[in-house]
Design a protein that fits this description.
Oligomer: single chain
Shape: globular
Number of strands: 0
Length: about 80
């Protein structure tokens, strides 16, 4: 299954730069590799966080690949999570 990263609207800015995105990606990898994905935050929340970092202009191919892998690790949200 191929996962693509949806970009936000063109006027939406990421709070990250390519330099700070690496730290954000590492943080997401740590959280999502443990029980963080099933914490009090829903998968929809984590997906939005990954997509927020993905909106950063100038990411390296390695950073983009790490973000795709994170998105693939997030199972589709269950209907009750969509409301969160």
């Amino acid at each position: 299954m191929k996962t693509t990263i949806k970009r936000g609207p063109p006027d939406r800015e990421s709070p990250y730069t390519p330099l700070t995105a690496g730290d954000a990606i590492s943080h997401l990898e740590r959280i999502l590799s443990h029980d963080g994905v099933d914490s009090l935050f829903s998968r929809t929340y984590w997906r939005a966080r990954v997509q927020q970092v993905s909106a950063t202009q100038g990411l390296t191919p390695q950073q983009q690949a790490r973000l795709v892998k994170l998105l693939e690790s997030l199972h589709p949200p269950v209907p009750s999570e969509e409301a969160c």
